[in-house]
Automatic annotation (TrEMBL):
One of its GO terms (cellular component) is proton-transporting V-type ATPase, V1 domain. PANTHER family: V-TYPE PROTON ATPASE SUBUNIT F, VACUOLAR ATP SYNTHASE SUBUNIT F. It comes from Mytilus galloprovincialis (Mediterranean mussel). This is V-type proton ATPase subunit F. It comes from the Eukaryota. Keywords: Hydrogen ion transport, Ion transport, Transport.
Length: 122
């Protein structure tokens, strides 16, 4: 079954207020039948447990194809992100306005680099 071709798959966002607001203004905000949102706004007072719970909840939902997460927030639950090995939903780390993207921290990029040798690019 082609997962990405399924109709009605959503993007989920775990991010700071500015990131979530931007994506919500772009039209990604949805509630499922259980009235659960497809986003989590994280601030300095958000417990790590709540972030991890939202992340694992998004992974279990069959209506979500992509989980976008600010890289600074991903660092807080790196163990959970590194343990996710399924292609769908894809987990994509994105920068925030306060912190640039650091490719060396991105678990998906590290995993992809491990699949290729330097000779593959010659």
């Amino acid at each position: 079954m082609a997962h990405s071709a399924q109709k009605g798959r959503l993007i989920a966002v775990i991010g700071d207020e500015d990131t979530c607001t931007g994506f919500l203004l772009g039209g990604i905000g949805e509630l499922n039948k259980k009235r659960e949102p497809n986003f989590l706004v994280v601030n300095k007072n958000t417990p790590r447990h709540d972030i991890e719970e939202a992340f694992r909840g998004f992974l279990k939902r069959d209506d979500i194809a992509i989980v976008l997460i600010n890289q600074t927030i991903a660092e807080e639950i790196r163990y959970a992100i590194d343990s996710h090995d399924q292609p769908i939903p894809a987990v994509i780390e994105i920068p925030s306005k306060d912190a640039p993207y650091d490719a060396s921290k991105d678990s998906i990029l590290r995993r992809a680099k491990g699949m290729f040798s330097a000779e593959d690019f010659r």
